[in-house]
Write a structure and sequence with these properties.
Number of helices: 21
Subcellular location: Cell membrane; Cytoplasm, Perinuclear region
GO cellular component, one term: plasma membrane
InterPro entries: AH/BAR_dom_sf, BAR_dom, GRAF_fam, PH-like_dom_sf, PH_domain, PH_GRAF, Rho_GTPase_activation_prot, RhoGAP_dom
Largest sheet: 6 strands, antiparallel, barrel
Number of strands: 13
Radius of gyration: 41 Å
Structural class: alpha+beta
Organism: Rhabdornis inornatus
Main location: membrane
CATH architecture of the largest domain: Up-down Bundle
CATH topology of the largest domain: Substrate Binding Domain Of Dnak, Chain:A, Domain 2
Length: about 750
């Protein structure tokens, strides 16, 4: 409930409740006064901060421009490189915003500070003065009344009448002042609503003008933002897959560290405490060393290292081992000890202490010491094989999925109940019951159970479908190179797979391509399928964190397979393409924006995504259509190269049109400046003396608004002419400006 109204009639009663209501109004005005005082303080701080804001924003932009993300491993994905370069784009955006701020300078003092100060001084200050008068008159009135009531009745009548008149006059004056004060209190309560808010509204109106300019900048920035969001989403999806694999590996190692020991050239390595003997009477000390032993050469090395001293490393010591013996408990007052003897110090054993009895047994076995204990590692054999039953299982599952659940949301990402999945697998992998299982018509098996069973079968193979041997070779092209070189390398490597592996992979990838065609309904884009099937089809022979960091590149390989399955499986690789590992590629970690500025775009074919553009013939001057739904924005990793000018796949290039599919645009859109406008250039053969006769049938191409992009195109179509359909304004000294109708010939303007 709000404040109670102050009735004028209550001024004459001056009851306790009236006084309580007056105090409530006074408290509210005091709160308003404090609010305005704080608001004025904050407003003045805002003015001071505004003077430094431009410098702070520019410094922030400078920090964004100079920072570069470090990555784990030896290469980045295209998405990661675009994300890395995004900080430079953000820096440019902030610089443009600061230019608008300087143009739209706002006078905060005139719109906010002065009106509020005037209201506080003239209105709230006046009420304070009225309150002082009211409190003073109250004290005077009731003091006089008490004095009057204390007069003796024995006083003369004339004196008593004079006293009565004086009290009555004072009371009337008090009532008049009380009425005026009550009126003022209620007036100011109503006045504050517009007197306070109107200056704030004016202040915000000025801000809105500035923000409108920011909105215009944001619209220009929107195309880059949309492409970057897809880069980020792809990276996040790969991160989720990588994180689960890392956690799974961590838990495996936590349960049994010895079974997951990394393979290296040392037979045994780890920390041991080494006894260092001192002259009497100082006894001996035990120093922690990191020890490494190679059984083939009998070489034992140890390095003193103390974690508590900041990780200081001492001098390494190396010797050739002669023998190792266990120390019994009755010969030393420490547990878990054993002696080593070096070949250069015969008869002078070195005593070492392990961390536990089990640790000592491991060292004793590795060092061929007495009482060595053999460790039996569990080897898990899977019954899954690439045999007739295996092909039957995959074909039955694929047929059921395409019949019953091709449009199910989250297909292959939603997992089935583990017990049901195991039961289905056991039935399918049994030759007696496999053919009896009806997956297409039975309601007993949910689609998620079928998809989980198929993934589990593929993961249960003794060797991944794309083999341990070729794992590293598949990863290499995914880390670097142009889109075309990546596809060619994967194409080449797929045909190096064993026949059964390649046949099974073809069946599966063809199905995944079909799933991706229904991405609008099932939400399983090519990128999402890569996240799911990357670890399923590819895995390294040794599980390490470094190998898990390559999961994102496994996903890219799967994306390339899906997007190019017709070429990869239906055609033979180029006979001249025999060295996919030594391909000439651009540096994998070069930011795309930087490489464009340095004129290196020639090393990377124009690759774009996420839009479907159809370019009309030269004479129509039509703008590109952008009507591809968001659901088709599926992959940013396997980039389709720009079609050759002399020939192109069916449906991409006809006599008058070049149609770029969703795999043709992201490399351009993600590298455009914030406010650039693409230029359209028509490339023309000039075989006859009459060039105009050939113009009507010429294809039209889009190129980025930069000198490097145009130069790249002109180099690739030597001895040709180009006519500019739209003007282009350079944004950098290294770029080219030209007007409508400008003619380019052999790369010259």
């Amino acid at each position: 409930m709000g404040l109670q109204p102050l009735e004028f009639s209550d001024c004459y009663l001056d009851s306790p409740w009236f006084r309580e209501r007056v105090r409530a109004h006074e408290a509210e005005l005091e709160k308003t006064n404090k609010f305005i005082k704080e608001l004025l303080k904050d407003g003045k701080n805002l003015i001071a901060a505004t003077k430094n804001l431009s410098a702070a924003q520019r410094k922030f932009a400078h920090s964004l421009r100079d920072f570069k993300f470090e990555f784990i491993g030896d290469a980045e994905t295209d998405d990661e490189r675009y994300i890395d370069a995004s900080l430079h784009e953000f820096s440019n955006f902030l610089k443009n915003l600061e230019e608008q701020r300087e143009i739209l300078a706002l006078s905060v003092t005139e719109t906010l500070i002065k009106p509020l100060e005037r209201f506080r001084k003239e209105q709230l200050g006046a009420v304070k003065e009225e309150k002082k008068k009211f409190d003073k008159e109250t004290e005077k009135n009731y003091s006089l009344l008490e004095k009057h009531l204390n007069l003796s009745a024995k006083k003369k009548e004339l004196q008593l009448q004079e006293a009565d008149n004086q009290v009555e006059q004072n009371r009337k004056h008090f009532y008049e002042l009380s009425l005026e004060y009550v009126c003022k209190l209620q007036e100011i309560q109503e006045r504050k609503k517009f007197e306070c808010v109107e200056p704030v509204l004016s202040f915000f109106q000025g801000l809105f003008t500035f923000y409108h300019q920011g909105y215009e900048l944001a619209k220009d920035f929107n195309h880059y933002k949309m492409a970057l969001q897809i880069n980020i989403q792809n990276t996040r999806n790969r991160f989720e897959g990588t994180r689960s694999e890392v956690e799974e590996l961590m838990n495996k190692i936590r349960r049994n560290p010895q079974e997951h020991k990394r393979a290296n050239h040392f037979t045994m390595e780890g920390y041991l405490y080494v006894q260092e003997k001192r002259p009497a009477p100082f006894g001996s000390s035990w120093v922690k060393h990191y020890c490494m032993y190679r059984k083939e050469t009998k070489k034992f090395s140890m390095i003193p290292f103390e974690h508590r001293s900041g990780g200081k490393v001492g001098d390494a010591e190396l010797f050739v081992l002669t023998y190792c013996t266990k120390r019994n408990a009755d010969t030393i007052d420490r547990r878990f000890c054993f002696d080593l003897e070096a070949s250069d110090r015969p008869g002078v054993p070195v005593t070492m202490q392990a961390f536990s009895e089990e640790d000592r047994k491991l060292w004793m076995e590795a060092l061929d010491g007495k009482e060595a204990v053999s460790i039996i590692f569990k080897i898990l054999f899977y019954s899954a094989q690439l045999d007739k039953i295996g092909f039957t299982i995959i074909k039955k599952c694929i047929s059921a999925v395409e019949t019953r659940g091709i449009n199910d949301q989250g297909l292959y990402r939603v997992v089935g109940v583990s017990s049901k999945v195991q039961r289905l697998l056991s039935l399918l992998m049994d030759s007696k019951t496999c053919n009896e299982v009806d997956l297409e018509n039975s309601v007993d098996w949910e689609v998620k159970t079928i998809t989980s069973a198929m993934k589990q079968y593929l993961r249960s193979l003794p060797e991944p479908l794309m083999t341990y041997e070729l794992h590293g070779e598949f990863i290499v092209p995914a880390k670097s190179g142009s889109p075309e070189s990546r596809v060619n390398a994967v194409h080449f490597l797929v045909h190096k797979l064993p026949e059964k592996n390649r046949e099974m992979l073809e069946i599966l990838v063809k199905h995944l391509a079909n799933v991706s065609k229904h991405a609008k309904r099932n939400l399983m884009t090519v990128a999402n399928l890569g996240v799911v099937f990357g670890p399923t089809l590819m895995r390294p022979q040794e599980e390490t964190v470094a190998a898990i960091m390559d999961l994102k590149f496994q996903n890219i390989v799967v994306e390339i397979l899906i997007e190019n399955h017709e070429k990869i499986f239906k055609t033979l690789p180029d006979a001249t393409f025999t060295e996919p590992i030594s391909m000439s590629v651009s540096p994998p970690n070069a930011p795309p924006r930087q490489s464009r500025r340095q004129g290196q775009r020639i090393k990377r074919p124009l690759a774009v995504y996420n839009l479907c553009l159809e370019l009309d013939d030269v004479d129509s001057h039509s703008s590109p259509r952008e009507d591809t739904p968001t659901g088709s924005m599926d992959s940013l990793s396997s980039q389709s190269p720009t079609p050759a000018f002399s020939s192109s796949p069916p449906g991409l290039l006809d006599e008058n049109h070049l149609i770029m599919n969703s795999g043709d645009l992201a490399g351009w859109t993600t590298n455009l400046p914030a406010q650039s406008r693409p230029s359209m250039v028509s490339w023309m053969n000039v075989p006859s003396a009459n060039p105009a006769a050939t113009n009507a049938a010429l294809p039209t191409f889009f190129f980025p608004n930069s000198a490097t992009g145009t130069d790249t195109a002109m180099e690739s179509v030597a001895h040709r002419k180009a006519r500019a359909v739209y003007p282009c304004e350079a944004e950098h000294s290294s770029e080219l400006s030209f007007q409508i109708g400008a003619i380019f010939e052999d790369g010259k303007y």
